[in-house]
Specification:
244 residues; alpha+beta; 13-stranded antiparallel beta sheet; 13 strands; 18% helix; globular
């Protein structure tokens, strides 16, 4: 009887080990969940600084993770546009009719004064190429069973030296992420506030980014009318469209 119990327990242990996912497999599952050919949405950024809140509205389209066009529609920023093409980002100011390329130290700055840097906006799906991931175990985050991953930068241009992620074990969305400098200082913290089922997938539609280097500062980014794999106009991602 005892030998039989040992055999059963050994079999269960081997099955559990076989079913366990690696860190790379978890990141790949996250990518598959958010994979799309095209996307369109309306969005808002609520920028909280001290006791004040500034709200910016936008409409956006994107193609995969490499191309995007964002146009701000709130009165203060109406007509300001961003064009993302692979690793490059341009901004158009209608009042000056001027196009500026965002590069160098400017990439570290907050987009439109938010806690989301231009570097964050450009990152897309480069995480697996820039970081080595390890699975640290499992943890519960606000009632959600999660894998806990640590990502260490492998290239010099990685925006953060180390990242720590809480990834839902079933939905494969990130509920929480911490971003660290090489010194170990916590720079930013991101949290998913709302998830909706859209087009057969669970997708984060409301996310909070907290800049730990700014006092009483956070940005809440939200998306509405989110549509995946829709037909977009030809030549949607061009300098001509940016300046229209």
């Amino acid at each position: 009887m005892q030998r039989a119990m040992v055999t059963v327990l050994t079999a269960l242990t081997l099955a559990a080990s076989a079913a366990a996912m690696t860190a790379d497999e978890i990141l790949a599952a996250m990518d598959r969940n958010r994979d799309y050919t095209t996307v369109s949405y309306r969005g808002t950024m609520e920028i909280h600084v001290g006791g004040q809140v500034r709200t910016k509205a936008m409409k956006a389209i994107g193609e995969g993770t490499s191309r995007a066009l964002v146009e701000f529609t709130n009165p203060q920023d109406e007509g300001v546009k961003f064009l993302k093409m692979e690793k490059e980002l341009w901004i158009y100011f209608p009042s000056e009719q001027e196009v500026v390329k965002i590069s160098g130290h400017m990439l570290k700055e907050g987009m439109m004064g938010s806690d989301i840097s231009y570097e964050d906006a450009l990152e897309s799906d480069a995480v697996r190429r820039k970081y080595r991931a390890t699975l640290d175990g499992e943890d519960a985050y606000e009632g959600h069973a999660c894998y806990v991953l640590t990502l260490e930068a492998q290239v010099k241009d990685a925006p953060y030296f180390r990242r720590r992620m809480w990834v839902d074990k079933e939905l494969f969305i990130g509920w929480k992420e911490e971003m660290y400098a090489k010194s170990g200082k916590l720079l930013k913290e991101a949290r998913t506030l709302e998830v909706r089922r859209i087009g057969g997938r669970e997708y984060p539609v409301r996310v909070e980014m907290v800049n730990k280097l700014r006092k009483d500062s956070k940005t809440v980014f939200a998306m509405e009318d989110l549509v995946f794999d829709t037909k977009l106009p030809q030549n949607a991602f061009t300098m001509q469209q940016l300046q229209r």
